[in-house]
Design a protein that fits this description.
By secondary structure, the chain is mostly helical. Helices cover about 70% and strands about 5% of the residues.
Length: about 240
């Protein structure tokens, strides 16, 4: 028995646009009836049910496709997703604690402590690495920029990196090649983010490669990308991007 797209929309609550998108990316290929409309078999509905369940658990569509194609199993995909959630939670916990302390100080009319307000990003902890590798001027430029922006811009800067880290993890979990176009776009965003943190100084290809290697060599950096394995993927992608600059 075959089911028309309208029947599937009514039964699942998904939009026809979503179903067309799943078809277009090969996640749920649809056959066509005699009139050229999309139609679905019972096997398609079983596949769609699995898609919906995994999507509701928060898995990216690329990971869902890997599961359905047999490249990995449900548990492996969920473990990857769990690692991503834990990284997000760690960052969120720091930000929540920072905001809570700010609220308490404001309510008690106490002096605000900038170091506590922006605990999620302490740029001075990398002073030695920056000065040793790129000189005192590099750190001075970054330090001047950081101290010159307001709280909202600082938070935006941290949030931008958190999203980049999430996107790196999603790309790695989807097994995207480090020289693929989607990964190159993440690398380009990452390089722009670094340039902002360096006070507008765009890193040279050599500097970008050196910084990427630090992500692997230093556990403090690697922790931002899920450990050494994740940092290695980021390093390889940034290195591939640097070679094309």
């Amino acid at each position: 028995m075959e089911y028309g797209i309208r029947q599937v929309v009514d039964a699942t609550g998904l939009s026809s646009r979503t179903l067309r998108h799943y078809d277009a990316i090969g996640l749920l290929p649809a056959a066509r009836d005699a009139s050229g409309y999309r139609c679905y078999t019972r096997a398609d509905l079983v596949r769609l049910q699995r898609i919906v369940v995994m999507r509701d658990l928060g898995l990216p569509l690329a990971s869902i496709r890997r599961v359905l194609e047999g490249d990995t199993d449900d548990v492996a995909a969920l473990r990857d997703h769990l690692a991503d959630l834990r990284r997000r939670r760690a960052l969120s916990d720091k930000q929540i604690a920072s905001v809570e302390r700010t609220i308490q100080r404001v309510q008690r009319q106490e002096e605000l402590m900038p170091d506590e307000m922006f605990e999620g990003f302490d740029h001075t902890q990398y002073r030695d690495e920056v000065q040793n590798r790129w000189g005192e001027q590099a750190f001075a430029d970054a330090d001047r920029w950081w101290r010159g922006i307001d709280g909202q811009d600082k938070q935006g800067f941290m949030d931008e990196h958190a999203q980049i880290a999430v996107d790196w993890a999603a790309a790695r979990n989807a097994r995207l090649s480090v020289d693929s176009e989607p990964v190159r776009e993440i690398a380009e965003r990452h390089a722009r983010w670094i340039a902002r943190g360096w006070g507008g100084r765009t890193p040279t290809p050599e500097a970008l490669v050196g910084l990427a290697q630090m992500y692997v060599d230093d556990e403090r950096f690697a922790a931002n990308y899920g450990g050494v394995e994740g940092a290695t993927y980021v390093r390889d992608a940034l290195t591939a991007y640097a070679r094309s600059m």
